[in-house]
Amino acid sequence: EVQLVQSGAEVKKPGESLKISCKGSGYTFAIYWVGWVRQMPGKGLEWMGIIHPGDSDIRYNPSFQGHVTISADKSTDTAFLQWNSLKASDTAIYYCARGGLFDYWGQGTLVTVSS
Amino acid sequence: SYGLTQPPSVSVAPGQTAKISCGGDNIREKGVHWHQQKPGQAPVLVVYDDSDRPSGIPERFSGSNSGKMATLTISRVEAGDEADYYCLIWDPSSDHPGVFGGGTKLTVL
């Protein structure tokens, strides 16, 4: 059974750093892209970026490039999304999903940034 | 930047047919994928590559893509179909490789 399991909810202060994770199982992790999606409170889905764990090819939505970093460790079948300096406007649920068409989704990670 | 336009809301009575549109330039050249999101849940893929259904998705869900519009059609709508629906395009050769539509709230009257 294909599963993407994300790390737990986080509460952070503005300016802090954060790295959340998404662990794949039930399939060959290295051969499928893994994407990240933001959903701000009460809003729609936003495509942030995507990585191919096999060769670390990364594509970003220009709106997010420079503020987040996407990475992956194929030895642990895990993809990551990280921030060096969080803002209050980063408060959202972040989902990971498999492949370019997002055929399987993680359960979401709630990130709350508040002073 | 590339944008996908969806109607904010669609309402339909149970048993009727709901059609949700997704518009974008040259959309016919791109594969469109549709996701259903119910409150408090992660999205679920219901149609991919314009008109294919993942296993486990009822045949009531279908898709088409022609001209400047892709369409998700839900036949014999049930109360459990009430959700937000998003179209998605993935084109790794583009400057904007992934784009979601703004989402459509389907209300079952």
Can you give a write-up of this model?
The complex is a heterodimer of chains A (115) and B (109). Chain A has strands at 3-6, 10-12, 18-25, 34-39, 45-52, 57-60, 69-73, 78-83, 92-98, 109-113. By secondary structure, chain A is an all-beta fold. In chain A, strands 2-10-9-4-5-6 form a six-stranded mixed sheet, with no helix packed on it. In chain A, strand 5 (45-52) and strand 6 (57-60) form a beta hairpin. Chain A is globular and about 40 Å long. The mean pLDDT of chain A is 97. Chain B has 109 residues and is mostly beta strands. Chain B is built from no helices and nine strands. Chain B has strands at residues 9-12, 18-23, 32-37, 44-47, 61-66, 69-74, 83-90, 98-100, 104-108. In chain B, strands 1, 3, 4, 7, 8 and 9 form a six-stranded mixed sheet that branches. A three-stranded antiparallel sheet of chain B has the order 2-6-5, with no helix packed on it. In chain B, a hairpin with a 2-residue loop joins strand 5 and strand 6 (69-74). Chain B is globular and about 40 Å long. The model of chain B has no long low-confidence stretch (mean pLDDT 95). Chains A and B meet through strand 5 of A and strand 3, strand 7 and strand 8 of B.
What is this entry, summarized?
The complex is a heterodimer of chains A (115) and B (109). Chain A is an all-beta fold and 115 residues long. Chain A is built from no helices and 10 strands.
